[in-house]
């Protein structure tokens, strides 16, 4: 009996992987997630079967007092009175969200490829914003993606993203590249910082495989607090350089996430840090631009990575399931990683 159970545990991920089929009609609206399938599912199997594996919650609790994105409105859940129906024994509870909240871009979340596009020339900030000929991922134009101001995304929305179940690499740049010091606002993780960190980690021999998810711990999440008294966390942050974005995309990774509100760096306005060489001009979020419009790599934000970093879980199985919200540019998520602690 023990042999049968062991064999079933070994075989079931393989059979599950064989049953997994991408929707071919969405291939041109998906970037690196087209790499997901049997190979990436099988990479997860050893972590799922390891009796020493631990589950890591990578999302923060969603509350009205959490740090809030300045771009996504207030987040004010309202909890309704308990209700019932005449002549029934049951009672039920419900809650609603406030008007004009962009729920998908608050808290731990991921962006759809249609979240960003780009113009041929900078907008002057005064004339009407015409996106008809704006460019989006895979050559889609604004008129195809969002034909009117009140239109949902007709292409590249979050509903086109498949379940992301694959191997994840967690790189602790605070530990390896910055000698245990948390990164500061506006600081960039360079290609050299990343390579140096990988070289010192347990991932060095394995390397990065196509279909991996990359998680980067900077230590900036030490500024995350709920309730958000200081309002520091979202006002500025470290991030990755444009050249590192290009390097990671060249490795065909599916998604990149940090323990920060953005994958881009945002300097303290009173102490600005110069842009690294190679950063394109006239872009407030150049890493978003490259990942979402050029490479088809999803951006992951507000990831809770400290516990993984403390346990030195540098390789794991990650599961990230965006909501099937038709036409939305982002989704709140509850990602989990399953891996084995290696720190003492």
What do these coordinates show?
It is a single chain. This protein is of the alpha/beta class and 344 residues long. It has a single domain (30-66, 104-129, 158-339), classed as Glucose Oxidase, domain 1 (3-Layer(bba) Sandwich). It is 21% helix and 16% strand. The protein has helices at 2-19, 38-49, 142-145, 173-176, 191-200, 242-250, 286-295, 306-310; strands spanning 54-57, 78-79, 83-84, 91-92, 95-96, 109-111, 164-172, 188-189, 213-217, 239-240, 255-258, 298-301, 315-320, 330-332, 336-339. Strands 1-15-13-7-9-11-12-6-14 form a 9-stranded mixed beta sheet. A hairpin with a 6-residue loop joins strand 3 (83-84) and strand 4 (91-92). Helix 1 (2-19) packs antiparallel against helix 2 (38-49) and helix 6 runs parallel beside helix 7. The radius of gyration is 21 Å and the shape is globular. Mean pLDDT is 93; it is low at 1-9.
The gist of it:
This protein is of the alpha/beta class and 344 residues long.
Task: Please state roughly what percent of the residues sit in beta strands, choosing from under 5%, 5-15%, 15-25%, 25-35%, 35-45% or over 45%.
Answer: 15-25%
Radius of gyration: 21 Å
Tell me how many strands there are: 15
Q: According to CATH, what is the class?
A: Alpha Beta
Helical segment tally? 8
Q: Please outline the major beta sheet.
A: 9 strands, mixed
CATH architecture: 3-Layer(bba) Sandwich
**Name given to the CATH homologous superfamily:** Putative cyclase
Please give the domain count: 1
- Which word captures the global form? globular
CATH fold-level label: Glucose Oxidase, domain 1
């Amino acid at each position: 009996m023990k042999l049968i159970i062991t064999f079933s545990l070994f075989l079931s991920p393989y059979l599950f992987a064989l049953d997994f089929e991408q929707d071919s009609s969405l291939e041109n609206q998906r970037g690196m997630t087209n790499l997901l399938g049997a190979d990436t599912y099988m990479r997860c199997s050893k972590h799922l079967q390891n009796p020493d594996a631990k589950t890591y919650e990578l999302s923060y609790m969603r509350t009205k007092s959490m740090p809030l994105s300045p771009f996504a409105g207030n987040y004010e859940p309202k909890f309704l009175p308990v209700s019932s129906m005449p002549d029934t024994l049951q009672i039920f509870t419900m809650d609603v969200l406030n008007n004009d909240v962009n729920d998908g871009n608050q808290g731990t979340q991921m962006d759809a490829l249609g979240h960003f596009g780009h113009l041929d020339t900078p907008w002057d900030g005064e004339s009407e914003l015409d996106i008809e000929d704006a460019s989006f991922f895979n050559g889609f134009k604004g008129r195809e993606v969002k034909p009117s101001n009140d239109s949902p995304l007709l292409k590249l929305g979050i509903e086109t993203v498949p379940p992301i179940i694959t191997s994840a690499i967690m790189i602790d740049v605070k530990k390896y590249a910055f000698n245990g010091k948390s990164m500061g606002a506006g600081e960039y993780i360079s290609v050299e910082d990343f390579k140096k960190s990988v070289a010192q980690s347990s991932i060095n021999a394995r390397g990065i495989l196509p279909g991996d998810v990359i998680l980067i711990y900077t230590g900036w999440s030490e500024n995350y607090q709920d309730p958000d008294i200081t309002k520091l966390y979202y006002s500025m942050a470290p991030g990755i350089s444009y050249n590192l974005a290009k390097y990671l995309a060249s490795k065909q990774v599916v998604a990149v996430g940090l323990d920060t509100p953005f994958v881009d760096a945002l300097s303290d306005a009173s102490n600005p840090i110069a842009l690294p060489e190679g950063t394109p001009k006239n872009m407030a979020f150049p890493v978003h631009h490259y990942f979402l419009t050029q490479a088809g790599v999803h951006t992951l934000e507000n990831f809770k990575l400290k516990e993984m970093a403390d346990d030195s879980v540098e390789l794991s199985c990650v599961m990230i399931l965006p909501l099937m919200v038709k036409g939305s540019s982002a989704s709140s998520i509850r990602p989990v990683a399953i891996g084995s602690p290696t720190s003492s």
